[in-house]
Amino acid sequence: MIQSLLPNILEFISQIDPFDKLPSDLKRQIAGSISITYLARGEKIEPQTDSDKKYLYIIRTGVMEQRKPNGILRARLGPEDLFGFTFIEPQSNAEDGYTAVATESTLLYLVPHEQLQKLLEDHPQYAEHFASQAQIRLQSALNVVWSDNEKGLFVKKVSEVATGAPAIVTADMTIQQVAHEMRNVVRSSTAVVKDKGVIVGLITDRDMTKRVIADGVSINRPISHVMTKSPLTVGPDDLVLKAASLMMQNNVRSLPVVSGNKVHGLLTTSHMVQKNRVQAIFLIDTIKRANTVEQLAALTPERQAIFEALVDGKVRSEIVGQVMAMIYDAYNRRLIQMAIETFGEPPCKFAWVVAGSHARNEIHIGSDQDSAIIMDNSASAEDRQYFELMSTFVCESLAKCGFTLCPGNFMASNRKWCQTLGIWKNYYSQWVKSPDHNTLLNTSVFLEVRSIYGEASFSEQLQNHLYKLIRQHPGFLTSLIKDATSVHPPLGIFNSLVLEKSGVNSNTLNIKRYAITLVVDLARIYGLSVGCTSTNTEERFRYANQRAVLSEDALKNIIGAYRFICQLRFRHQQEALKKGIEPNNHISPDSFGSFERQHLKDAFRIIANLQDAAKLRFSEV
Amino acid sequence: MKKLINYFHPLAQLERARQTRLAESNLPDAVRELISEPYPHPETKLYDLEFLVFDLETTGLNPEQDRILSIGFLQIQQFRVDIQSSSHTYVKSDTDIKAESAVINHIVPEMLTEGLSLDEAMDNLFRAMKGKVLIAHGTMVEKEFIDNYLQQRYGIEPLPLIWLDTLAMEKSLMRNQNDTQTGDYRLSAVRERHNLPPYLAHNALADSIATGELFLVLIKIIFGKTIPTIGRLIKPVN
């Protein structure tokens, strides 16, 4: 009765994250527990020492600034912003100590900690929205986005799609007995072969044609003679995406769904076509069969459609990056093949390597080209001419397909980046032994390389060379960290402006420069410091955690922050695509709701904290 | 000297009047209870006092003809408007509601059949008023309706209660010295001048909250960051 008469307060908190996630009766309970205070300009609250009761604070009108004990600005908060999460549950390493000062007259709503705690105990499913640790809040932000929408086709579980059932036979059965079982009993194109209850093989009707009929094998031989041994399988909880990429990589059309030695079902390509239209598979297949650059270029809208579907499906940013990288690789490989068809077989061994975000499998729709060619040490001057022809063709054709040329010219078509393995090793030695700011800027893209065509061992040798150098010259990491921490994340989004640490405001948030690159740089330093061979940003952090140079907490924090900002960039790009605008990295703060602003602030803070920690760890040599 | 000033301080006068009234034999229990607590000393800091902000929605401004439709109130403690202490009551009535008042406060007859009787509602209000400094925006209306009720129901004179009027406080601001007669002093207009958010008006509880917030703002404007004593707020009249 009383609560229904609090429309002003109820309406206000109903539009604010995380209260908007609560059912209306809980919102009413919270509205009914609020007390309101008013701060004149310059008035201060010190949440951590403030009297007996603790509160979550919501700014109704006005502006406040949070400052750390040393006076450094921590955040500027405006209407709808919250603070005081720390007190929901006391945490040793939660938000650090700070005071909050009203810089304009401020009307504050106070939600008693007690009340929230009681409410969350009764309704634990909402607790994570109010968690004091930023990482938990970010995780819950990602979850909310996922669950709000229908999950994308790639993130469906295999068990949701695979309805087929394979025949299950034993290894001592004859080929004919198995064929009978498949054809007449189970009516399946596939049989799983077990021996003493253990899955040992797989046979399909195509195998029967190729391995039995074509080779004239007697149908009385045991099936174990012709079956595929140690077959590929997927688990019922695996993502469809994983199954799809397994099928593509291994050129198989069906995968048994198993857990342990229990067979749950069968996933076939036709299955996935009917159920799911896994577009990426078709696109990659079409790319492989394209005969001209024009045909490839015509596929660009399809590539964009897949990107949009992935972002719409709220697929995790890491997976979006991987799928887009798989597609990119397919274009790139097909163009190299076309070059070989045009210019003839390569005169010597070589590797076409991709660098930067492409090497890390962190591709988005706006990714440009970063590539290089590593030639065999025996390559002559004429050989080099061949590769110049090839790289010019490939890079220009990629540009026609929508992969913009690298503005810094870090491409195989640049003579400087088309060199023999020996010269590449010399490059690395120079960079690592005498790093200076300019060369670092110019070369950090090549600190990650991945071979996509030719001699994969060349890029591996190069990477091993790099790791060895770094171990011998720890000063290199010091230079990297100096470089990586020279740019700071902004403090937050305030009104319609991005508040930068210098106090300067910008009209747009360059999410690449001020967030994503900072995280990628930190991951590189942590990864290289422990000799992590993966170049993937998340994996580097995880490896650093395993090697005990990154705490469990810091790991969760930074991964949560990274996923959140990546997702934000993807969504920004997707919106640009839908409007027919060229996707970029500049996001207008006007496009952020209360939800994004809160979580961006968390993410920025996490990045800044890790920068500080990395500086301490790696600056001292 | 200070003692003498204190003796004539309005609060001291109110306290003496309270004691006199408490001695009256014809006081009904609810009223006796209401004034049973001693009033604060003028030196008491506002921060240590409890306030009751309240608002009456009525059918009009004349207590002899019009009647109370609803009562909303809530407390301010430690200078915080406490929603948990809030209360809202519709007052039951057999007579019809005037169309024009229904337009203003959106109270329709159906609501009132659910409400409390006027006696029950006033007893509730009196219980909440006990030991509190009373705040309303334009106290005149509230005061007259309460006085009229006491007169009609119990045949007793107005009570010596401690009132604070946010409307009078607003008028006292220097910036308003020139237009105390002509300016717009409606609650919503005053709130807007002080950059307070627009609230749904003409609901007794919403208006109480709105008045409570305004009170906090006015105290800060008039006295700055140091919260004053009650004696400075209830000034001796010259």
From TrEMBL, chain A:
Q: Does the keyword Chaperone apply?
A: no
PROSITE patterns xrefs: CBS, CNMP_BINDING_3
Domain of life where this protein originates: Bacteria
Domain Cyclic nucleotide-binding residues, every copy: 18-120
GO function term, MF aspect, one: [protein-PII] uridylyltransferase activity
* Domain CBS: residue ranges: 162-219, 227-286
Q: Which InterPro entries match?
A: CBS_dom (IPR000644), CBS_dom_sf (IPR046342), cNMP-bd_dom (IPR000595), cNMP-bd_dom_sf (IPR018490), Diverse_CBS-Domain (IPR051257), DUF294_put_nucleoTrafse_sb-bd (IPR018821), GlnD_Uridyltrans_N (IPR005105), RmlC-like_jellyroll (IPR014710)
Q: What is this protein called?
A: CBS domain-containing protein
Q: What is the organism of origin for this protein?
A: Reinekea marinisedimentorum
Automatic annotation (TrEMBL), chain B:
Q: What's a single GO MF annotation on this record?
A: 3'-5' exonuclease activity
Please indicate if the UniProt record lists Hydrolase as a keyword: yes
One record GO biological process: DNA metabolic process
- What Pfam families does the record point to? RNase_T (PF00929)
Q: So which domain of life are we looking at?
A: Bacteria
Looking at the record, the residues that make up the Exonuclease domain are 50-224
Protein known as: DNA polymerase-3 subunit epsilon
| Family annotation (InterPro entries) | Ribonucl_H (IPR013520), RNaseH-like_sf (IPR012337), RNaseH_sf (IPR036397)
Q: Which GO terms describe its cellular component?
A: cytosol
The alphabetized UniProt keywords are: Exonuclease, Hydrolase, Nuclease
